[in-house]
Design goal:
The chain has 225 residues and is an all-beta fold. The protein has one domain. The chain is built from no helices and 14 strands. The strands form two sheets. Strands 1, 2, 3, 4, 7, 8, 9, 10, 11, 12, 13 and 14 form a twelve-stranded antiparallel β-sheet that branches. The protein has a two-stranded antiparallel sheet with strand order 5-6. Strand 11 and strand 12 form a beta hairpin.
Length: 225
């Protein structure tokens, strides 16, 4: 996804637990921010089995507004699905998995082009599994569709890699039910950025100051109770 800073407050969450190794949940958030101020819904699932695990999520942003500033349709969607392959769960190499992933999406005015990722995942946890951490190093190939940067050069990834951390901390500070979780991604990708302006007619962007950026950092920490 494009680089952005998001503070989200969960206003509703519905979870269906199918056992210790399977979970599907639906979340509704309100996204704060000078250029945001809209609802996002997320459907996500995690399913473990004897060969590893599968994770997916689908985001929808609801930010297509009419002249009266009323939302009339979703403004974009993003999809991600990943599979960790682990055929050696009962050995000393159990924390290590092979990781394969696809992601892509579309938003008003631009696309999140197809990307395929391949690499390794290392799983760390406390003895009671209340605190977990996944560290991933992934080769990332993005379909730029012959896109061009502002200077006319061909868009590319200067380094075709992504580094990801995913964490979960249950009963934070000894408070039963308080959970701190989230992820952080860093990868190289040519894309355009421009500063925010408080002018809806310009799409809340000062397009006279657009620049080419070459990497993305994205993180979404969440606090649940």
């Amino acid at each position: 996804m494009s680089n952005k800073s998001i503070i989200t407050v969960a206003v509703a969450a519905l979870a269906f637990t199918l056992g210790a190794k399977a979970q599907t949940n639906f979340q509704t958030f309100y996204d704060f921010g000078s250029d945001r101020g809209h609802v996002t819904t997320t459907l996500e699932g995690f399913y473990g089995d004897k060969w590893g695990n599968t994770f997916f999520f689908v985001d929808y942003d609801y930010n297509s507004k009419n002249d009266n500033d009323k939302v009339y349709a979703p403004s974009g969607t993003y999809f991600e699905i990943a599979r960790c392959l682990n055929f050696w769960q009962n050995t000393k190499l159990a924390p290590f998995s092979f990781h394969v992933e696809y992601n892509g999406g579309a938003y008003n005015g631009y696309t999140i082009n197809n990307a395929f990722l391949f690499g390794v995942d290392w799983f760390l946890h406390s003895n009671d599994f209340k605190n977990t951490l996944n560290l991933k190093a992934l080769y990332k190939t993005i379909n730029y569709n012959d896109g061009k940067n502002l200077d006319g050069s061909k868009m590319k990834s200067e380094v075709p890699l992504q580094f990801t951390a995913v964490w979960g901390m249950q009963d934070l500070f000894g408070v039963k039910g308080l959970r701190f979780s989230g992820f952080a991604d860093f990868w190289w990708e040519d894309h355009s950025v421009c500063p925010y302006v408080s002018d809806k007619s310009k799409g809340y962007r000062d397009w006279t100051k657009v620049e080419t950026a070459h990497f993305v950092f994205l993180s979404e920490p969440q606090l649940w109770y």
